[in-house]
Design goal:
The complex is a heterodimer. Chain A is built from 10 helices and 19 strands. The C terminus of chain A is likely disordered. The longest helix of chain A has 17 residues. By secondary structure, chain A is an alpha+beta fold. The relative contact order of chain A is 0.16. In chain A, strands 3, 6, 7, 8, 9, 10 and 11 form a 7-stranded mixed beta sheet that branches. In chain A, strands 1, 2, 4, 5, 18 and 19 form a 6-stranded antiparallel beta sheet that branches. Chain B has one domain. In chain B, helix 3 runs antiparallel to helix 4. The chains are: A alpha+beta, B mainly alpha. The interface between A and B is medium-sized, with 30 and 25 residues.
């Protein structure tokens, strides 16, 4: 277990926490934008350490030597060929792994092996650093946005490798700005919201909301005024009607995130969420508490969206409804942008 | 550690253009030595200490680090699993050794070219000049490595300018290599220090600069 004990992370002007929860082995995706604190958490885990509080790996403090980290930039040593970087990574860590050229070939990057680092694009450098980190045999692998801004030829192999790491005892921590991607490879999801973390949840019970463009959702609640106030804080257009609140947002994921915030942080009880427009059976199934049906419907919706070329609009929402059953080890309080 | 040590040298070997920046300063120093040939090495070495020596060290540190900061160079090795202290030390070692080597070779060559009848025996003079140059090269490398921890590497130029402006003054001479190097080559002493004491002050300054550079780089920038 990686345990965060009132850990506060800070990077640039974004601070995050204090966070108190445990991350299981497998792949954990922190979902959110940079402003939500995802990168602050990942850089904190990967190289900076927490500003305050503790991060433990098992019974001891997490050490830099436990971690392989790839940030937004991948400053590999200039002057070396790409394959030499991978070989050097193995030598420095004193591990036995495939030859650099073979490893790069396996990840679809064979063509880069003979190119010097300074001649590579940022995406290519990041891809090489990802390959090195994923195969580093370190206990903890921290990857910022592993599938964006990487050489596209490497993305499928990186995705495959992440999926395989789900089943291992390695702790892989990633950040994703596009929530739909988290469901592709993560076993645990932590939804970040302006420096706070909503409860970690597993992707074995995902609610995948496939949607593009603005949406309107009706929310049945016994406390419409409280909900209105919370949603107004989120900057969403709202109005109350008899027995329900109507919300209009830029996307279903944005609306869902705001509603989750109202549920988790303000404790507003939600009876039902009824999306207008095209049928979203999985949302209704989830509201009814039938997670299996929700998953199946979400999968079908996602497949349809994928066929229509709108896969990027798919959003994974953790603990949308009903109110989350937070693990006893979990607590998230305070934090926010500095 | 050994595999890490190869990285800066490999970069140097594969980027001959970075070494080209060293050439003009070496040529200028040798030119001064050649024009003074047979008349004694004191003047040529004083000129060498004042201008080409610091610039050679400056170029050597730049060739090892690249155009960017020490932190940037270190993060390249850190990304591949090297510990931060090891990555820093590797760059220190490469920059200081390259700087010492270059300044010693050029300093020795200047002494040989300008050697006159009033000078000590040639071999002794060349060795003494090379040794003094190497000490100066080490101190300047430390100074420029410390400078490279400021800004995006631009601090290197700033400390060079400060050394030029204040390194010869009474207070600045104690804290910067310029005065001590000048003293070693027969120029005015720094405060009450003899040339021998300056030869101790230079490695002490080098160690101090490197320690400060290490402390500034041991944690990644937030």
């Amino acid at each position: 277990m990686i345990t965060l004990e009132a850990a506060v992370f800070r990077e640039a002007k974004v601070s995050c926490g204090p966070l108190t929860f445990a991350l299981p082995a497998g792949v954990t995706a922190f979902v959110g934008e940079v402003a939500d604190g995802t990168e602050a958490v990942l850089r904190g885990l990967g190289e900076l350490g927490p500003r305050s509080g503790k991060v433990r790996l098992g019974n001891r403090a997490l050490e830099p030597s436990d971690v392989a980290f790839v940030g937004q930039d991948a400053p590999l040593p200039e002057g070396l060929f790409a394959r030499e970087c991978v070989d050097l990574g193995a030598k420095v860590r004193k591990i036995a792994r495939e030859d650099g050229a073979v490893l790069l070939e396996r990840f679809g990057l064979g063509a880069l092996g003979q190119r010097r680092v300074e001649k590579l694009t940022l995406g290519e450098r990041r891809a090489i650093a990802m390959v090195d980190a994923i195969t580093s045999q370190r206990r903890v692998i921290v990857l910022v946005d592993p599938l964006s801004h990487v050489a596209q030829e490497a993305a499928p192999a990186i995705l495959r490798a992440l999926r395989e790491l789900r089943k291992t005892n390695v702790f892989v921590v990633t950040s994703v700005s596009s929530p739909g991607l988290a469901a592709d490879y993560a076993s645990t999801v932590v939804l970040m919201d302006r420096g706070r973390a909503l409860a970690p949840t597993t992707t074995s019970r995902p609610l995948l909301l496939a949607s593009q463009g603005p949406v309107q959702v009706r929310i049945v609640t016994s406390e419409p005024m409280n909900l209105l106030r919370e949603l107004a804080r989120e900057g969403l257009a709202t109005h109350a009607d008899a027995g329900h609140v109507s919300v209009t947002g830029a996307s279903l994921s944005a609306v869902a995130k705001a509603v989750q915030h109202a549920i988790v942080h303000a404790g507003v009880p939600i009876t039902a969420v009824i999306p207008d427009g095209p049928p979203l059976a999985h949302v209704r199934a989830a509201i009814a508490g039938d997670e299996r049906a929700a998953y199946d419907a979400a999968y079908a919706a996602r497949m349809q969206a994928s066929t229509e070329g709108t896969r990027g609009g798919a959003a994974l929402v953790a603990h949308a409804v009903p109110a989350p059953e937070a693990p006893s080890a979990f607590r998230s309080d305070g934090g926010g942008q500095a | 550690m050994w595999s890490l040590l190869r990285v800066p040298w490999t970069r140097l070997a594969r980027s001959p253009r970075s070494l080209l920046t060293l050439l003009p300063w070496a040529c200028i120093a040798l030119f001064f030595g050649w024009t003074a040939r047979g008349r004694g090495a004191d003047d040529s070495l004083a000129t060498y200490a004042a201008l080409p020596l610091p610039l050679l060290a400056f170029a050597a540190v730049g060739a090892v680090l690249g155009a960017k900061s020490l932190g940037h160079a270190v993060s390249g090795l850190r990304a591949l699993g090297a510990s931060r202290p090891a990555a820093i030390l590797v760059h220190f070692l490469a920059a200081v050794l390259l700087s010492m080597l270059l300044t010693a070779v050029v300093g020795g060559a200047v002494a040989a070219l300008a050697h006159g009848p009033a000078d000590p025996p040639l071999a002794r003079d060349v060795l003494a000049s090379a040794g003094a140059s190497a000490l100066g090269g080490a101190a300047y490398a430390g100074l420029f490595l410390l400078g490279a921890t400021f800004g995006n590497g631009a601090g290197r130029s700033i400390v060079l300018a400060i050394d030029f402006a204040f390194g010869g003054s009474s207070v600045g001479a104690m804290l910067f290599p310029r005065g001590h190097v000048r003293s070693l080559f027969g120029g005015a002493d720094v405060a009450e220090l003899t040339a021998r004491q300056s030869s101790i002050a230079l490695p002490v300054l080098a160690a101090l600069f490197l320690l400060l550079a290490f402390l500034r780089t041991r944690r990644p920038a937030r």
